[in-house]
Amino acid sequence: MVADLTQMESFLDAMRIPIRLACATESGWPMAVSLWFRYQSGQLFCATQKTARVVAYLQNDARCAFEIAEDRPPYCGVRGQAIARIDEKTGAEILEKLLLRYLGNIDNTLARKLLAKRESEVAIVLKPVQVFTWDFSFRMRDVVSPMRDSAVKICPGS
User: Fold this and answer.
1) Among the listed residues 71, 23, 69, the one whose alpha carbon sits nearest the alpha carbon of residue 48
2) What is the Cα gyration radius of the chain?
3) CA distances from 94 to 72, 103, 106, 153 (A)
4) How is the chain split among helix, strand and coil, in percent rounded to 5?
5) CA pair distance 32, 124, nearest whole angstrom
6) Which residues contact 125 (CB under 8 A, 6 or more apart)?
7) C-alpha dihedral over 103, 107, 109, 111, to 10 degrees?
8) pLDDT per residue over 120-154, tens digit each?
């Protein structure tokens, strides 16, 4: 099921959780990695070091799958298949945007550590070819997660 595009985009913009990205290794076995992401103009953007294995895997086979979903009930999220492109020119720019998105600023130890290696950062640009959303809020309406905080949960179909 694909939710209304506006609802899905609102969900992707609001989520501050990693994307789970699955790709094929050289041996043909699938590998899943978690990366920070940013959604913009119909594409998903991630950043990592040029030497990361995921970069080599995606350069070898650009087909991949992804999922963005919380681990707390009621379960909902966005998943799909995409074609990945490695962009060596915008890696540092995407990294800084991701740091601001996930950490709120770049004045912290983690941000300084990651930005120190920005010259070797690359962007992973995912162009979705199929996107699916799901929202189990209705069927799980009486399920409360023991880890649930007071924040309002956002789902792509609600």
Assistant:
1) 23
2) 16
3) 28, 14, 13, 27
4) 25, 35, 40
5) 14
6) 43, 44, 45, 84, 85, 86, 87
7) 60
8) 999 999 999 999 998 876 676 676 665 555 455 66
CB 76 within 8 A of CB 69: yes
- Amino acid identity of 7? Q
Question: What are the tokens at 58?
Answer: 């995606």
Residues 68 and 3: beta-carbon distance below 8 Å: no
Question: Which tokens hold the place of 114?
Answer: 């990651």
Q: Is the peptide bond before 128 cis (omega within 30 degrees of 0)?
A: no
